[in-house]
Amino acid sequence: MSQAELLAADTGLAPTIREPRFGGLTIFAACVVGIMLVLAVIGPSIAPYNPSASAFAQYIPPPAIGAIPHLLWNMVRGVGPMPHWFGTDASGFDVFSRVISAPRVDLVIAVLANGFALLLGVPIGLIAGYFRNPATEIMMRVSDVVQSFPVFISAMILVALAGQSVVNLVIALAILYAPIYVRLTRSEVMSQKVRGMVEASRAIGLSEMAIAVRHVLPNSLGPTLVQSSVTIGFAILLTAGLSFVGAGVRPPAAEWGLMIATGANDMVLGQWWASVFPGIAISLTVFSFAVLGEMLERHYRN
Amino acid sequence: MALWRNVCMPILGASLLSASIGVGTSQAAPSQLLILTEDVPAGLDIDGPSIAIPTTQEGMVQLLEPLIDYTPKGMNADGVVVPDFSRPRGRLLESWSYDPATLTWTLHLRHDVKSCAGNTFTADDVLYTWARAKSVSGAVPNAWFLLNMSSVANFSTAVFDKNPAVSGPARKLGDEITKVDDYTIKVKQAQPNPLFLVNMAVVISQGIYDKTDMLKHATPSDPWSHDYANNVTAPSFGPYCVSKWVKNDEMVFTANPNYYRGKAAINRVVMKRVPQAANRLVILRSGQAQVIQGMTAHQYDSLKSAKGVTVGGVYGNEGMFIVMNFKTKPFDNIKLRQAIADAIPYSRIIDVGYAGEAKQWKSVIPTTYPDYVASDDYNYDPDKAKQLLAEAGYPGGKGLEQYADAFKLTYVAEKEATLGPVVNAIRTALVPLGIPVTLNPMPETEYGDHQIVKKDLAFAINDQEKPIGVDAGYAMQLFFVSKEAGGLNNMENYANPEIDALWAKAKLETDVTKRNAELAQMQQILMRDVAWLPVVTFKTQWAYSDKLKGVAWVPDNSMRFYDLHY
């Protein structure tokens, strides 16, 4: 019997915490994330066309569904030019090649930004939660101020001030997401520091810093790591959003947000494919990271 | 697709417009017109800070009346009326004459002309306008520049002297322009210069102000009423008056009831800001707006088959060129410049960037201007480009990697939809030759600062500079003559004593044949040195309701509302 079911049996209440179930949705999300991670490594190498070079054939629509088997057969036999599976855009770029190459930019930015946010936020959260004094209170208020601004606007301002580059984008996102980890870690540390293991560690003569780092921190990282999955998803979305408004990745880099922005003008002409395919890719990726985060959170709570 | 075009787009258009300006879904009345633009005028002063912005100019030309313009030649294949540059006609001038012995123009002004405020036009209005130009009291000495370029006596650079004892008197109108009577003026030139008449047609620089109305709004701190002219209206004798102006939103023009050529057929014109090109397109197709502009070539192309919409255009004076700064290495190497010129895929750019509505540009002068001379020096020839690259000292592009920063191809980020395909085509063609091109989109204001003020754009695409004065010499003084010799917008820092000397000679040449030969020689030198790398000359286009007639093109590329009728 699971923990939740035992609790329900004791209290007579229906279980509010369910065991994590690795159902179809989770498997689907894990597959999507896995594919995106693989594409981040090999995407540009397996793309049928150079994702940043014009094929000088613009606005070619994706092949009709009925034509796909024939095109696949030709591809297997090595007959004819490689099809433009997702069509081409206004510049003659192959949309399929760009969609599968984009994870290298989007995922790298998101993962690095999240990593730096962790490196920045967790130590501050640990100090603020374990050593409570006026200095740590000031740290928390600073963190509150950063969090009080809308993330998108703040990111735009930071990138505008620092200059438009991938490195600055990573730094800006890391600064903006660090307060989430500060608050999460602090709250977990505060609940851990009153536990018996801390008293026991003091009794055997460990220093406060040693107790914080060796015992409290490892026990406080669960929610933080769960949050990582969600943050990476949001970072992908934010990167794409910034590129959409021209404040993120520069053309002609293959990046989903940039692709949507470039194709948006042509939507009214009925040329939907340049925007819709990268849009689907973003939606699937962000959704999958969110599902995995939800799954990890349930797992942690149990 | 048909469902999307015929049902969804009109509904979306109606919703967009209703949401943005709160109008109903009824069609515009025959005496009204709604034109959707990227922006509305930011200011209206001839010497104001926003004079270079096309939508600002579009607002100004509806209000300001010029001394002369050009007689219409007829309609082109698109149904757009085009001017005959060989036949200037009087607007505020009834006639004019020139005495070469005394270098004096005599201008006879039109009678019975009234401004929006009801004031009668006289010689005092012209004198006031030129005295204001000479005061160089505005943000930009735009009006002064054209009079200086026209060699009007005493309109010299002394107005900018740091010593007030020199600049003070130089800024006051003297006897170079005199009033003979209320309807006659005499203008003296320092040297013979045929640009005088050409420049009088440039309404955004030489439109005539209503002196009485301007003086009414003068203040001790602003005696030339720059604030009034820039932020309220440009009081003049033109066909329209401003009746409402909400900056960044809309400008409403009402026909001037006193206009001497007769009241405009369309009484009320609303110029509405709709920044997204796609939204403008949808609203036009829904029938809520009558004119749109600033679309990509492909959007115009798609509108050609739309019901109730006409796309009209003209090969006027717009072109796209590449700037390579002579002060930035390695662009001081002429062979490298020529190699790049031979590596540009001109016909692919015409297809990808302009939907076929462009032609390879073979000079630095607009193709429609008198004295245009085509050069066949450069065509897409990658083998020749490789050979020239080797001759330049960079075989296979070796050695160019150290100049990676110089090869950032800069363009206006707001024009991504138009210029994105072009810069990608250029990059795709140059990179395989070993030329390390990267893209550098830059906000328009920043681009303008680097182009006009700092002049430090190393490698850039430009599609917005055009000479409004219809003369090859005008264009070359504006863009290629060195700063020391009077060049104003020499963004590429080109300095060639040969060009300066030829222009000094051609500027004063009264023999048309000799002058044409000198201007042709200048064009050949500029093309040899790739002073600009002209890529394509493209159509200036508008899309409008098929009920609208009378669309005409003028060299400032701003549609004249007065010419329009249903």
Overview of the structural elements:
The complex is a heterodimer of chains A (302) and B (566). Chain A has 302 residues and is mostly helical. Helix content of chain A is 71%, strand content 0%. Chain A is built from 11 helices and no strands. Chain A has helices at residues 3-11, 24-46, 68-77, 95-130, 134-148, 151-162, 166-192, 196-203, 208-244, 256-264, 273-301. The longest helix of chain A has 37 residues, at 208-244. The model of chain A is unreliable at 11-15 (pLDDT under 50). By secondary structure, chain B is α+β, with helices and mostly antiparallel strands. Chain B folds into 2 domains: 2-271 and 541-563, Periplasmic binding protein-like II (D-Maltodextrin-Binding Protein, domain 2); 319-538, Dipeptide-binding Protein, domain 3, CATH 3.10.105. Chain B is 33% helix and 19% strand. Chain B has 19 helices and 19 strands. In chain B, the strands form 5 sheets. Chain B has a 7-stranded mixed sheet with strand order 8-9-10-1-11-19-12, sandwiched between helices. A 4-stranded antiparallel sheet of chain B has the order 4-5-7-6, covered by helices on one side. In chain B, strand 4 (93-99) and strand 5 (104-109) form a beta hairpin. Chain B is globular and about 70 Å long. Residues 1-7 and 19-26 of chain B have low confidence and may be disordered. At the A-B interface, helix 10 of A face helix 1, helix 10, helix 11, helix 13 and helix 15 of B. Chain B: InterPro entries: Peptide/Ni-bd, SBP_5, SBP_5_dom. Chain B: Residues 88-461 form the Solute-binding protein family domain. Chain B: Pfam families: SBP_bac_5 (PF00496). Chain B: GO terms for molecular function: peptide transmembrane transporter activity. Chain B: It comes from Acidisoma cellulosilyticum.
